[in-house]
Specification:
By secondary structure, the chain is of the alpha/beta class. It has 14 helices and ten strands. The strands form two sheets. The chain has a six-stranded parallel beta sheet with strand order 7-6-5-8-9-10, sandwiched between helices. The longest helix has 20 residues. It is globular, with a radius of gyration of 21 Å. The two termini are 28 Å apart.
């Protein structure tokens, strides 16, 4: 384990400083260890990955990167001021390009991320995208196979799992449910599983709108799964302009066999939703489209069941780690 200064916020100067220090520690470590055959490196951190890239280039060691997020693109949702942002993020873009261009093999958590790395890489022809996914065997072991699905219960449960931060527009889902309440549909409740910097703000907003919301906070994975499978409709309300691609929650939604209402702009996930008919794509700036989507699913039990089954099938072919991660092993051995 290498020393790294602590930081508290997801996006802050201390985090960048922490990563620089960790990159320096990695350089020292690599100088004193035996030369490896191959280095497998997650990206980000950019500082860590650049240190690894320089080491591999100097010593002719095969370098594989695993692109799990796009930096600085992911920061632009939090701070994006024309001209100033471009100047501030330019060094990070150059650092990312250096890492991507020196990789002998590119693996990424989505086609979108893979293609970004391939833009500046002349060594790797195709690359490999493998969704984060979940272990379906373990997931299924956590639930009661003979459970009574809440589709038959009085209330329809809409669920969100994940970070309660700037990248996710929880308020627009609350607004949509509030509109349905006004139209006389009051047997909908919203379950929010997770934590983050905006949790208190979302809680206050739900009370203001008088929407039945249950905030569980962060749960152990096993408890989260048990609650997730008892729900009827999953939401993926990613804020416009966010850099996310194929993320953890969509794999869990698929494993749970839930239909999804999706506002994410990423074409890759929107295409999956349409191709496999696992839910309804909406636009984040169009609340009526979200209201209509929730009402459509609320009103059509057969549609919920069909799209839920389709999503479970999607999980089995694209999100089951025991199957898909073997492609990473093959790539390393190659």
């Amino acid at each position: 384990f290498l020393k790294e200064p602590a930081y508290k916020k997801n996006v802050c100067v201390k985090r960048l400083y922490s990563h620089i220090m960790l990159g320096n520690e990695l350089e020292k470590y690599l100088r004193r260890r035996k030369l490896p055959d191959v280095v497998y490196c997650a990206v980000p951190s950019l500082s860590l990955a650049k240190s690894a890239a320089k080491y591999c280039k100097k010593n002719n060691v095969k370098f594989i990167i695993d692109v799990q997020d796009l930096w600085p693109e992911a920061f632009k949702l939090v701070f994006n001021v024309p001209i100033i942002s471009n100047l501030m993020y330019y060094p990070m873009i150059k650092k990312a390009d250096y890492i991507y261009s020196n990789a002998d093999e590119i693996i990424a958590v989505s086609e979108t991320y893979k293609n970004r790395a391939l833009e500046v890489n002349k060594k790797c022809k195709e690359g490999l995208s493998v969704y984060l996914g979940t272990d379906l065997g373990y997931f299924d072991s956590l639930i009661n196979k003979n459970k009574n699905n809440s589709i038959n219960n009085a209330n329809i449960k809409v669920v969100y799992i994940g970070t309660l931060g700037h990248s996710y527009n929880i308020k627009i889902i609350i607004d949509a449910i509030a509109i349905l309440y006004k139209r006389g549909i009051k047997d909908i409740e919203f379950l929010i599983i997770g934590d983050g910097p905006l949790k208190s703000e979302f809680e206050m907003y739900s009370k203001k709108k008088k929407v039945k919301c249950i905030f569980t906070g962060r749960l152990e994975y096993s408890r989260m799964v048990k609650k997730l499978v008892e729900c009827d409709i999953a939401v993926n309300p990613i804020t416009s302009g966010a850099a996310q691609s194929i993320i953890n929650k969509v794999g869990d939604y698929a494993a749970a066999g839930l239909p999804v209402i999706n506002t994410q702009e990423c074409k890759e996930y929107r295409n999956l939703v349409e191709k496999y008919d696992v839910g309804i794509n909406c636009n984040e700036d169009n609340i009526e489209s979200i209201v209509d989507a929730i009402y459509t699913m609320y009103n059509d039990k057969k549609l919920r069941i069909l799209q839920g089954k389709n999503n479970r099938y999607l999980a089995e072919i694209l999100f089951d780690r025991k199957k898909t991660y073997y492609n990473i092993v093959k790539s390393i051995l190659k």
